[in-house]
Amino acid sequence: MSIDIDTARKVAKLARIRVEEADLPALAGELSGILGFMEQLNEVDVEGIEPMTSVTPMRLRRRADVVTDGNIQTQILKNAPDAREGFFAVPKVVE
After folding, report:
1. What residues does each domain of the chain span?
2. Which of 3, 5, 46, 90 lies in disulfide reach of 31, CB 3.0 to 4.6 Å?
């Protein structure tokens, strides 16, 4: 798939990056190259191959799913610049 300059301009706008008009042809070429690599990946036969979550086959350690309050409120609030009545105190931002 080939990306033209207008599409590259639109992608830059959507990504909220400023690209000079002179740099748009290079960006279009790079985006076309990326899409070419993605098309190559689509040609790989993955029939019968299970998806991987990691490159090493290991199970993740899991903790017991128990609801607790943590009992660490005082430790957490020690990091707060301003804490009142057991909560973080922040400046008012809505008038």
Report:
1. 20-44
2. 3
